[in-house]
Task: structure prediction
Amino acid sequence: MCDALRTAAPATVSAQDLLDGVRSLMEGEASSLLLELTDDAPVPAPADTIVCGALTISPKARSVTRDGVDIPLTPKEFDILCFLARNRGEVFTKEQIYQAVWSGDYLLDDSNIMAFIRKLRKKIEPNPDAPEYILTIWGIGYKFNDTL
Result:
């Protein structure tokens, strides 16, 4: 690992500074290393945040953005979106979505969940007629795209 650090060609000045700092630590010339993030450094999303393409879902804040623009959702729309996004790639029937999102007894009505999905798509999809995020699996139900 140490040889890799010494021979690796840094991609940026910041990478060179990091390598120099690590070398100083390893050679005993320094006792600590302080790193500073510049304004152009990407800020990582919080651990509970779900990022799929341009869509960012923050379960703790109950917020959704696409390309940095807030998307207002009703509580049930958010719950459905969050459930599907947390289980990306898994196909769920309408009944499974109801059981996951509605507490207590519920009235299973296919048109009700279809209406929620349609409203969600209008809000989150760049083109609701050709959805990228919430995909219909004909004859089964819905899934959140796991290829984004």
User: Anything to note?
Assistant: The CA atoms of residues 25 and 45 lie 29 Å apart. The longest strand covers residues 55-58. DSSP finds five helices and six strands in the chain. The helical segments are 2-7, 13-26, 75-86, 94-101, 110-124.
